[in-house]
Amino acid sequence: QSMKKILFSIVIPTLNEEKYLPLLLEDLTKQTFPKDLFEIIHVDGKSKDNTVEIAKEFKNKIDLKTIISTKKNVSWQRNLGGELASGKWIIFMDADNRLPAHFLDGVKYQLAKKPSTDIFTTWSNSNKFASLESSVARILNLGLEVYHASGKPVAFGAMIGVKKSIFENIKFDHSQKFMEDALFVNE
Question: Which one, out of 15, 21, 68, 130, has a CA that is 20 to 30 A from the CA of 74?
Fold first, then answer.
């Protein structure tokens, strides 16, 4: 049996996410993308709820590793997960993200269309939110497009993909308390 190379390492930092993490992990079990070509690195910041115990329930369904971080800091947790990633691409995502079954296939397709890509983000699906949240999602999506059109890189931490080779040289600034995701993208 030949060992397949991991394409995507999905890093999910958590702190007290027992409500949302199982929904995202369930979405990841339903991906149409081959399960042996992606891994999930869950980095928990010493949650006081059942986040870690719930994550353990998915270990037999998908390639999932749970690491307990010494710090409760999203950038620190992202960096820790990124260091352990073995995929060509690292996708940092928030525990409250929801994914369609074709998400990873779609990312692979888009990256194949634009092989010079080093870093990416995705739109939010505004149709799945209540009215106010839907408006906010649309504004954020528009903002992403305006920045993209102006040639300025921007991304929101809820979903940032980066080549592992780029991440080896650029990390999230864990001393930054606000907009750490934007600073990471602009490095």
Answer: 130
